[in-house]
Write a structure and sequence with these properties.
Distance between the termini: 41 Å
Largest sheet: 9 strands, mixed
Strand order of the largest sheet: 3-2-11-10-12-13-14-15-16
Shape: globular
Structural class: alpha/beta
CATH superfamily of one domain: ANL, C-terminal domain
CATH topology of one domain: GMP Synthetase, Chain A, domain 3
Oligomer: single chain
């Protein structure tokens, strides 16, 4: 097999293996016949949608807690009934199957109710970044042709500026509102007629290098959905009816994927509207959570807590700390494993291609800088600029395919495609053990003095300095070398390191042309809501 091509056999081709994965996860377990019938009818009515997942959960175990936020605890039956009422409220505001409904909300039970309500109408859910400024928000609402918006109360003034005439409902509010989900869902409502269409999920790209674009993804059919579920459960050993602290924002692909996975596994989601590192540990202890879903900068903030604060909480219930959304620094991975044990799983993928590979604890111990092993059922090719497979061990552009690749951007644009595979926008290589390494964005390479440098290698080196908490490396124009490296660094609280000391640290480990021309110290780096560094601001 070529080094540039990795393909795994579909999990259901080995039925015994798939059954073992499903049994281990707790999906396959005894269910009363009447409840089994109710679950089957739910999927028959609603297809492979959030509406189906919560209706099936209500049929299987109606009183099981579905979501716990800072204000309330709601069951699967609550989500099902409340979402029906909100679906009627959306219909009264002119929303029908195929329309786009924007969701601008932080993590809460109201977010989940809104998402399920949108799916009950067969409408498309457009997930908006809560960090958007007015111009970005207005541009996205216009380009997506949103028919309505559901937003937390804090964003209402912004909507009044950019989309005053757009029909709306309020998700989270500090006090009851006549147009709020809490009030509208208080009264029972008649069943909604199934729309005969599964709504799409439209997730916005991060916009770290340009204008955010809506990446649309249709719901998989039942068989394809089972393929993808088994593959992911094989790579990350989630279990059914567990408890997950969802710290990652639910509007982002990673948070949303785990929210929907929890639906299928009938797990309880513990959510807070804003992330706080000590609070996250306290929630793990209070609810005996077996899973924490986060982005790497959140884990970094947990480790940066004083030792006496971190050790105050019992986190022994954790089996999985699942990360994605941005690159995981090798030094950060090692430090977390040493502190909390072999519970760390790092998923590599993109908004467009979904998941590609997963690095489990064993991979991160052996090769902390790797992106792990390709998930079963995913095809990956590494190619050069001409689209030809690279030689073994060589670096190439990463193209991937699975059953969850997006349909295309809502603008009509598309990602670069090659023989049915979609570009992730990154470059990488495979090692001899089959691990994938992501070396940077395919447009992020810095050419300094004729030498190619990917920022990630320099960032990893600086992360290994004991005083460095956070770092990002960018390229700037340079009269002598064409481009030069500038490292933007945040130091750990209570430490000191001069720029010359940090440059010497890099020089002792990397080639001269990889040493930053300049190191700039910051109190913090500019990041978006999902934890990605906004390099355009640093440049």
């Amino acid at each position: 097999m070529k080094d540039g091509l990795r393909r795994m056999v579909n999990p259901l081709a080995a039925g015994a293996s798939a059954a073992k994965v499903l049994a281990r996860s707790g999906i396959v377990r005894p269910v009363r016949p009447d409840r089994m019938l109710g679950m089957a009818l739910s999927f028959g009515r609603w297809g492979m949608s959030p509406a189906a997942a919560y209706a099936a959960g209500a049929a299987r175990d109606p009183d099981r807690l579905a979501v716990v936020d800072e204000r309330e605890s709601v069951t699967y039956r609550d989500i099902d009934s409340r979402s029906t009422a909100i679906a009627h409220a959306l219909r009264e505001r002119g929303v029908y199957a195929g329309d786009a409904v924007a969701l601008l909300a932080r993590n809460s039970a109201a977010f989940v109710v809104a998402q399920v309500a949108i799916s009950k109408l067969g409408a498309d859910a457009l997930y908006l970044n809560t960090g958007f400024a007015g111009p970005q928000l207005g541009d996205v609402l216009l380009s997506a042709g949103a028919s309505a918006v559901i937003a937390d109360e804090e964003f209402v003034p912004l909507l009044d500026e950019v989309a005053p005439d757009l029909p709306r409902l309020v998700a989270w509010s500090d006090e009851p509102r006549a147009d709020g989900i809490g009030v509208l869902a208080a009264e029972p409502a008649p069943e909604v007629e199934p729309p005969g269409r599964d709504g799409r999920h439209i997730i916005l790209t991060s916009g770290t290098t340009g204008r955010p674009k809506g990446a649309a993804r249709s719901a998989p059919n039942a068989l394809s959905g089972m393929f993808e579920l088994v593959a992911l459960l094989e790579a990350i050993p989630y279990r059914g009816q567990g408890t997950t602290v969802l710290a990652a924002p639910a509007f982002h692909a990673w948070g949303l994927a785990n929210l929907m996975l929890a639906m299928g596994l009938q797990s309880t989601l513990v959510m807070r509207r804003r992330f706080d590192p000590a609070s996250a540990l306290e929630l793990v202890e209070r609810y005996g959570a077996d899973t924490l879903v986060a982005v790497p900068v959140m884990v970094q903030r947990i480790l940066d807590l004083p030792d006496d604060v971190r050790h105050r909480y019992d986190t022994s219930s954790l089996r999985i700390v699942a990360l994605s959304g941005s690159a995981l620094a090798p030094a950060l991975a090692t430090r977390f494993l040493d502190e909390y044990g072999d519970v760390l799983y790092s998923l590599y993928g993109s908004t467009e291609v979904s998941y590609v590979s997963v690095a489990g604890p064993g991979d991160l111990r052996a090769a902390p800088s790797c992106a792990g092993r390709v998930v079963r059922g995913v095809t990956v090719r590494l190619v050069d600029a001409d689209g030809r497979d690279v030689l073994p061990g060589a670096t190439g552009r990463i193209f991937a395919a699975s059953g969850l690749v997006f349909d295309g951007y809502t603008s009509g644009e598309d990602k670069s495609r090659l023989d049915g595979l979609t570009s992730t926008g990154d470059v990488g290589r495979f090692d001899d053990d089959g691990r994938l390494y992501v070396e940077g964005r395919d447009d992020d390479m810095i050419v300094s003095g004729g030498e190619n440098v990917f920022p990630a290698e320099v960032e990893d080196c600086l992360h290994r300095h004991p005083a460095v908490s956070d770092v990002s490396v960018v390229g700037v124009d340079d009269e002598r070398f064409g481009q030069a490296l500038v490292a933007h660094v945040v130091l750990r609280s209570g430490t000191h390191a001069a720029p010359d000391e940090l440059r010497a640290h890099v020089k002792s480990q990397l080639a001269n042309y990889k040493v930053p021309r300049e190191i700039v110290l910051h109190d913090e780096l500019p990041r978006n809501e999902t934890g990605k560094v906004l390099k355009r601001e640093l440049r």
